[in-house]
């Protein structure tokens, strides 16, 4: 390999697990916090806020977890179906499929005899030929078969952990006002810290990341509070 | 082009807008329905269920909409940053970058003199060269600059529309029991219809799609109901 920068440090690609954690935690922190804050304005009793909050966390955990599971399963099914189709087409319409390989390479400047020979080299092995079409024509990457269940558990678990942070003051304290204040403080710290870490992991400015997640949480709570005040009681 | 099946009918790729609609509607139908059902078991009064439900819809709409906006913005920033990096590297380490192009084509069976000439053809135009690396090394597709705002509006709007379906009986009816029954019926029809349409759009079996979304909604409501019964009151 010719000299160059170390390959590992060059590009960041968020792993699927990090993405799942981010999705689950962000929504888990934001929505239960906003719901509890809105209900603090509309009703007085902490036990009811806790009931609504826990019900929301349970519903969100199952909906997002199962949703993530089915999305990952659908991706895997879709990949297999398209792969079978490409394999069949490479048998039924080999000239058409070779033409498509040529069209892709042509777009990047390969021409003439070199193009013809490169296409023949790729099409000389059916597995590689279909691999090429899957990646470069359809832009589909083979999904990890174990991903569906892991994705469900990660998103659902992150949602529960995230949701219990804003709800814990309502569980532990008797009065709604102080519980709301502590919940705001806990959630603000958690959102800012989470945004900071997420930005660092994806190579973006950490302060901007912290302010963005804080902004989303604040905006969601403010809108929920206004809606609950306008329609409630 | 050699003869083959009509290209348009061959492969389905969900447009970004369809994906946004699916994400917003699925969560919007499921979570407010489950929350309202759980609160129906724990508390008696419809006005409070409506307040909590509307607050949840508002919070979920803002959290998912803004979350979608920032995710799309982050994708666009990430693409531009990686593109600048690839351009710089093609200047600083041209041999390394050519080696990487060769490694990709080699994986698909291109060898020897044809490989060398194909790499030179791709590297002869810096724009195409960087395009090739972005697509085939980093697997990044240039994001649509207008997508962020549209994505936010689509996800948020779909969440509100989805959420108002299970909540409408509680708004329009006085008694909790009948409202819960009507809400179950409305939501079941909406979830099954939505799953059916989603499966048809993605080319999967429609009946399985309908049963899956129905299952997610039912499971989320059941778990939320159990949690609210266990901890509430």
From TrEMBL, chains A, B:
Bilayer-crossing regions: 21-42, 48-72, 152-172, 178-197, 209-231
Keywords (A to Z) from UniProt: Membrane, Transmembrane, Transmembrane helix
One Pfam family per UniProt: VIT1
InterPro entries in UniProt: Ccc1_fam
Chief place where the protein resides: membrane
Domain of life: Bacteria
Location of the protein in the cell: Endomembrane system
Residue runs in coiled coils: none
Keyword tRNA-binding: no
Record protein name field: Iron transporter
Membrane topology: Multi-pass membrane protein
């Amino acid at each position: 390999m010719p000299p160059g920068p170390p390959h590992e440090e060059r590009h960041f690609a968020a792993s699927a697990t990090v993405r799942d954690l981010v999705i689950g935690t962000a929504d888990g922190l934001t929505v239960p916090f906003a719901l509890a804050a809105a209900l603090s304005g509309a009703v007085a009793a902490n036990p009811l806020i806790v009931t609504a909050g826990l019900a929301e966390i349970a519903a969100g955990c199952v909906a997002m977890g199962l949703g993530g599971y089915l999305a990952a399963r659908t991706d895997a099914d879709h990949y297999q179906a398209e792969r079978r189709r490409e394999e069949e087409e490479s048998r039924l319409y080999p000239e058409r499929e070779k033409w498509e390989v040529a069209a892709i390479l042509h777009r990047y400047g390969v021409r003439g005899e070199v193009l013809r020979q490169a296409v023949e080299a790729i099409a000389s092995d059916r597995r590689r030929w279909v691999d090429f079409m899957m990646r470069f024509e359809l832009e589909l990457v083979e999904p990890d078969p174990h991903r569906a269940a892991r994705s469900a558990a990660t998103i659902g678990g992150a949602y529960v952990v995230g949701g219990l942070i804003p709800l814990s003051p309502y569980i532990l304290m008797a009065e709604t006002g102080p519980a709301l204040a502590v919940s705001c403080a806990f959630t603000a710290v958690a959102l800012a810290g989470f945004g900071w870490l997420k930005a660092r992991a994806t190579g973006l400015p950490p302060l901007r990341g912290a302010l963005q997640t804080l902004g989303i949480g604040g905006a969601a709570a403010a809108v929920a509070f206004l809606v609950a005040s306008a329609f409630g009681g």
